[in-house]
Amino acid sequence: MSVIERPRLSPARMRPGDVMRVGAVGLRTRPLRAFLSALGIAIGIAAMVGVVGLSSSSGAELDRTLSALGTNLLTVSAGTTLMGEAAQMPVEAEAMIERIGPVEAASAIAKIPEAKVYRSEQIPEAQTGGISTYAARLDLLETVGATLRGGTWLNQATERYPAAVLGSSAAQRLGVGAAGPDTQIIVGGARFTVVGILEPVALATDLDSGVLVGWPVAESRLGFDGHPTTLYTRSEEARLEAVRQVLAGTANPEAPNEADVSRPSDALAAKQATDQAFANLLLGVGAVALLVGGVGVANTMVISVLERRAEIGLRRSLGATRGQIRTQFLAESLLLSAMGGGGGILLGSAVTMGYAYYSGWPSVVPIWATAGGFAATLLIGAMAGLYPAIRASRLSPTEALSTP
């Protein structure tokens, strides 16, 4: 007799759509648990995307500011003497700096310590509000790139009379909302009319908390001696470093070491570097939150395997292979992480755009941050679901079905 050989049956292969459907079974049957697990992933990804987005938006705002204001502004200010006393710049310092070939513009201010500022005569003498009085040249606004919030800047007529322009912080501290002929303050014991209010000055922040008056009226009414304290210069960009090398010696030939030269745009760049370091710290916090979310996904998957032993046994007895069981639970873990990652990316992007809009920044969410964040979620999901998937695949049909 011949033996009839039966053809060996191979298990049906699961197509990608089948894998997705069986992987979503556990999520559909336990939606609240799936939501809470995905929420942990979403919080971590939202934190990471938000931190990167806000940092990038802040950097874009800095680049826009420097592009508008320029990086060719240098300042030279009076430092200290060898004895530790406040140094004094020569009266001719501004004129001498203007003789430097590459210098395109120069202007100056002079701080007048004795001229205290008050809103009215009724304010106690000790309550100065930290406001300083400066004598200012007429071309100061163009040199430092400042703009007016309201009113007008000093001109050849008003610089000789008690007229003042307030910095943005000074106006706020004095409670002055608008400039006009009826708005007056007390400067050095005399009444001055507020003719203008400045917007914040990015490259000359000292002006924000200052009251600016004309050079002639400062000499005639406030006891100003004519010595500038800070000079601002605009130079050719290509020869900026050369100007920087000679600026102190030109401004104060007798004591160059008593003059401090700086580039205001460098301070903004340093501030951006500090913000970036802080952003990196927050990025680490987001990574920890993402890791915690991954632990939550792993915990959910382990519990899911324990609760669905009967389902696993039934599928195995109907012909499902260990690889298919492993694929099912791994797909469930990846779907769970992908849901959290997608939600986190949307939330982080929304926070970035909202804060950027509120701050007046350009909204920037780098593609690498969203793509990297989503890839991180899939990696976390694969790692979190790997052990539960292997554990589920190792259950024999009899063991799984006999477990109560």
Provide structural commentary:
The structure is a single chain. The protein has 404 residues and is an alpha+beta fold. It folds into two domains: 17-66 and 269-402, no CATH class; 73-263, no CATH class. The chain is 53% helix and 14% strand. It has 13 helices and eleven strands. A hairpin with a 2-residue loop joins strand 7 and strand 8. The protein is elongated.
SSE diagram, text form:
Layout: H1 16-23, H2 25-29, H3 31-69, E1 73-78, H4 93-98, E2 103-111, E3 117-118, E4 132-136, H5 140-144, E5 148-151, E6 163-166, H6 168-174, E7 184-187, E8 190-198, E9 210-214, H7 215-221, E10 230-235, H8 240-251, E11 259-262, H9 264-307, H10 309-317, H11 322-359, H12 367-393, H13 397-402
Helix pairs in contact: 1-11, 3-9, 3-11, 3-12, 9-11, 9-12, 11-12
Summarize this entry quickly:
The chain is 53% helix and 14% strand. It has helices spanning 16-23, 25-29, 31-69, 93-98, 140-144, 168-174, 215-221, 240-251, 264-307, 309-317, 322-359, 367-393, 397-402, and strands at residues 73-78, 103-111, 117-118, 132-136, 148-151, 163-166, 184-187, 190-198, 210-214, 230-235, 259-262.
